[in-house]
């Protein structure tokens, strides 16, 4: 008998961040929980269609739409876990001098400040999405990417190290739409570089506590 696994929202204790209010976090956690819920609902609906082992002609339009939406919801869930997971009230604007991350950034960009200028520049790009620093597990090289919505631009197999939400909901209660640079500054003040180091080493979700449960 098939037992479908479903995801449960993670809990993040992030009160006391610099420049990102409790109000924003509360609203943002609710949005994240919506992605978890929708991922579960879509997975169940697709499983229902697949139950008899075939996709009938009349099921195909609904099946296609559900499957496309699953890419949006699934990435929305996972990226928020990376995002909340790399924030802490004891954050620091920059990684330690001897950190693996800083060394990798220097090897990939020449200098750490060039890596940071690129990441911040991507974060300021107009549009709805994310700035993400990835590590290529094949050669250890770092690269920064713009992700449109949640699912367009992720590089398959690359490891997310630092994930920054720049959808307006991430900062609109604290800043004006044109004040995204101030939000980005606040984001950096709260980065948990230990988690980033862990993601460098483990090559997976690092200290993320996301679990699938029946
Ligand atoms: Fe978000």
Characteristics of this structure?
single chain; 214 residues; alpha+beta; 3-stranded antiparallel sheet; two-stranded antiparallel ribbon; 6 helices; disordered C terminus; binds fe (ii) ion
Measured between the Cα atoms of the first and last residue, the distance is: 13 Å
Number of helices: 6
| Assembly state (oligomeric) | single chain
Tally the beta strands. 5
Helix amount, in percent?
Answer: 40-55%
Spatially, the strands of the biggest sheet line up as 3-2-4
What percentage of amino acids are in beta strands?
Answer: 5-15%
Which class best fits the helix and strand makeup?
A: alpha+beta
Describe the structure.
- With 214 residues, this protein is an alpha+beta fold.
- It is built from six helices and five strands, in the order E-H-H-H-H-E-E-E-H-H-E.
- It has helices spanning 22-50, 60-85, 100-109, 112-123, 180-189, 193-202, and strands at 6-7, 129-135, 142-148, 159-165, 212-213.
- The protein has a three-stranded antiparallel beta sheet with strand order 3-2-4, sandwiched between helices. A two-stranded antiparallel sheet has the order 1-5.
- Helix 1 runs antiparallel to helix 2.
- The chain is globular and about 60 Å long.
Could you give the topology of this structure?
Blueprint: E1 6-7, H1 22-50, H2 60-85, H3 100-109, H4 112-123, E2 129-135, E3 142-148, E4 159-165, H5 180-189, H6 193-202, E5 212-213
Antiparallel strand pairs: 1-5, 2-3, 2-4
Fe (ii) ion (FE2) binds at residues 28, 31, 80, 165, 167, 169-170.
């Amino acid at each position: 008998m098939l037992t479908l696994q479903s995801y449960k929202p993670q809990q993040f204790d992030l009160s006391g961040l610099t420049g990102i209010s409790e109000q924003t976090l509360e609203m943002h956690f609710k949005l994240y929980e919506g992605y978890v819920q929708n991922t579960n609902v879509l997975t169940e609906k697709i499983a229902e269609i697949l139950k008899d082992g075939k996709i009938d002609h009349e099921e195909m339009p609904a099946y296609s739409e559900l499957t496309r939406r699953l890419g949006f919801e699934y990435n929305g869930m996972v990226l928020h876990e990376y995002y909340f997971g790399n924030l802490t009230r004891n954050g620091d604007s920059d990684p330690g001098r001897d950190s693996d991350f800083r060394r990798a950034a220097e090897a990939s960009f020449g200098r750490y400040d060039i890596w940071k200028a690129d990441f911040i520049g991507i974060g300021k790009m107009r549009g709805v999405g994310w700035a993400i620093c990835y590590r290529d597990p094949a050669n250890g090289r770092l690269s920064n990417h713009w992700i449109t919505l949640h699912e367009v631009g992720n590089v398959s197999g690359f490891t997310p190290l630092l994930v920054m939400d720049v959808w307006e909901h991430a900062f609109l209660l604290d800043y004006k739409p044109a004040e995204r640079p101030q939000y980005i500054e606040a984001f950096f003040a709260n980065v948990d570089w230990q988690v980033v180091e862990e993601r460098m080493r483990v090559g997976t979700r690092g200290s993320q506590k996301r679990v699938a449960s029946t």
